[in-house]
Amino acid sequence: MLKFYAIAVTASAMTAVGQILLKTGAQRGKGGELKALYLNPFVLSGYAIMGLVTLMNLYAFKVVPLKAQVFFLGFVLLLVTGMSMRLLGERLGRNEKIGAAMIFAGLLIFGL
Prior knowledge:
Strand content: under 5%
Number of domains: 1
Helix content: over 70%
Mean pLDDT: 90
C-alpha cells in the first residue's frame, strides 16, 4: 500500500514540474508562431510529464482512497506556487498569500 502512496506523491511533484515546464515554454514562445509555442522542448516535455502523471495516478487510484487523492491536489497547488516563485520569479499578491495559507491550513486539518 505504501508503494501506491509513494506513486501518488511522486506524481504530485511531477505535476508541479510539468506545470513549470509548460509555463516556461509558453513564455519562450511569445510573439512567435504556433509552431514555436507548441513544439518547443519545454512544452513537449511538460505534456509528456503530464501524460505520465495521468498513468501514474490511474495506477495509484487502485489502492489510494479518493479522499487522499484530494489531499494531493491541494499539495500540488502549493508546490506549483512555491516553484513558480523560486524558479520563475513570480510574486504572490495579498489575496494569493491568503489563499495559499488557507490551502496549507486545510491540508493540516485534513491530515489530522
